[in-house]
Amino acid sequence: MFSWICKSISDYKSQGFSKPWRFELNKKLCDFVSSWQIIMEKEKIITVKNLTKKFGNFTAVKGISFDVYKGEIFGFLGANGAGKTTAMKMLIGISNPTSGEANVAGFDVHTQTNMVKKSIGYMSQKFSMYDDLTIKENITFFGGIYGLSRSQIKQKITQLVEELELQEVANNLVGSLPLGWKQKLSFSVALLHEPKIVFLDEPTGGVDPITRRQFWEMIYTQAYKGTTIFVTTHYMDEAEYCDRVSIMVDGTIEALDTPKNLKKQFNVEAMNDVFLKLARNIE
After folding, report:
1. pTM higher than 0.90
2. 204 and 179 in one domain?
3. Residue among 97, 73, 126 nearest 246 (CA)
4. Nearest-CA neighbor of 185 among 173, 196, 231?
5. What are 98-137's pLDDT values in tens digits?
6. Hey, is 178 helix, strand or coil?
7. Secondary structure letter of residue 121 according to DSSP
């Protein structure tokens, strides 16, 4: 079935549509994808209950609760200072919660942080690869960190270079690449160890619209393989591409639903207007 989806996507892309393929699919494919997602959503991959983080007398995250499902593209939105980065740090195991519960990929963020880290991929907002290493050397380095064998690393190098069409520059320093290529490479490297979940922290910041579209096509492909995508973004049009979206305001989750339902709930035409109503109190 997945091969059929891929073929349909390929056929769609060959027609030259400018929007992400997901929003222009024919009805048959949409119906199939909808049914497929219902099946996937039976398996929870992240469970959060009353998660709280305090810094002295200041509460950055105030008892948030939500679930994320396998293969879902989950948008985690909020204005600067809303608490979304602090919440993400707790979920990826680099910040201890003050109270509450969170289970990520089957592991407790309080007591099994090392297992959480092994089960996820993470792409930070700031480019995190080494500019003074070549593309192949970066893949080799991070593959070793993720515990891949030499044969697996060799296979991954061949795979990623071909998928990203980097054959002519594979031995070039990463620092010489355009930002868009760097971001796509970072995403691919975050998937080297085939994690169950990938956390993306504003992955398309600063890249051009064409590269943003290509990046989201990579996200869709990975999600339909069953990888859960947990993404923060400040581009509200990208929120439209998510299966569900949560919006944090002052440390709490003020809204969580599909983009379609949120727009209907707040009687607006775009996710940007939903965000403005919640985060900026703009009617």
Report:
1. no
2. yes
3. 73
4. 173
5. 999 999 999 999 999 999 999 999 998 776 789 999 999 9
6. coil
7. E
